[in-house]
């Protein structure tokens, strides 16, 4: 019999320079790229199997400088979101609420599925946001939290994307 298949659309948001592109490429290739055109917006497809179902993930790596209308389109398009900040940049952590509010403005707040990722965990010497602060914010927003490094691969980036995928599937099933 044919396996069931689903498509899951994921958009990655966060202040410029937090490592969105590096994270997406790390997830897809298990490698780190040092420089990635910050103005480039890219989409990728990644296929996996979850509980006998073929899941095709479509990943949108947003570029950040886009206009509000384009961004609204990205939010409408997405089934789920990754909001990324950089643990060495407090401003990027403060931007998390800005992105969360954007999602709520476009989707119904109760339907917004997202995870919070604190990237650049390898840069411990210049850390500005503690792990506890990340955990607390995620608890407040009722979302999963991962601290990781696209550079070293620490923090289970694969699991973060898969967990978001599972969460999206759970929500789709109850609808
Ligand atoms: P984006 O603008 O959010 O897509 O960020 P990029 O993926 O282009 O990354 C911005 C800069 O941060 C680049 O110079 C990357 O090499 C660097 N970077 C990204 N992730 C990490 C990380 O986990 N650790 C370190 N040390 N640098 C990172
Ligand atoms: Mg980028």
Name a few traits of the molecule.
binds magnesium ion, 37% helix, six-stranded mixed beta sheet, 175 residues, 5 helices, alpha/beta, globular
Number of helices: 5
The biggest sheet, with number of strands, parallel, antiparallel or mixed sense and barrel status, is: 6 strands, mixed
State the order of secondary-structure elements, H for helix, E for strand: EHEEHEHEHEH
Strand content bin:
25-35%
Residues in helix, %: 25-40%
- The coarse silhouette is globular
Main location: cytoplasm
Protein name: Ras-related and estrogen-regulated growth inhibitor
GO cellular component, one term: cytoplasm
Subcellular location: Cytoplasm
Q: How would you characterize the overall build of this protein?
A:
- The chain has five helices and six strands, in the order βαββαβαβαβα.
- The chain is α/β, with parallel strands linked by helices.
- A six-stranded mixed beta sheet has the order 2-3-1-4-5-6, sandwiched between helices.
- The model has no long low-confidence stretch (mean pLDDT 92).
- The structure holds guanosine-5'-diphosphate and magnesium ion (MG).
């Amino acid at each position: 019999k044919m396996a069931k298949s689903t498509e899951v659309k994921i958009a990655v948001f966060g202040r410029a320079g937090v490592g969105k592109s590096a994270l997406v490429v790390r997830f897809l290739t298990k490698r780190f790229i040092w420089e990635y055109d910050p103005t480039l917006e890219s989409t990728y497809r990644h296929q996996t199997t979850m509980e006998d179902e073929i899941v095709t993930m479509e990943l949108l790596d947003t570029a950040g400088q886009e206009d509000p209308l384009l961004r609204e389109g990205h939010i409408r398009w997405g089934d789920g979101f990754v909001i990324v900040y950089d643990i060495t940049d407090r401003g990027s952590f403060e931007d998390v609420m800005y992105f969360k509010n954007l999602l709520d403005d476009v989707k119904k707040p109760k339907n917004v599925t997202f995870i919070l990722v604190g990237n650049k965990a390898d840069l411990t010497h210049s850390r500005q946001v503690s792990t506890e602060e990340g955990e607390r914010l995620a608890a407040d927003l009722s979302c999963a939290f991962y601290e990781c490094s696209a550079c070293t691969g620490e923090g289970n980036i694969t699991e973060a994307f898969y967990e978001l995928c599972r969460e999206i599937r759970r929500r789709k099933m109850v609808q």
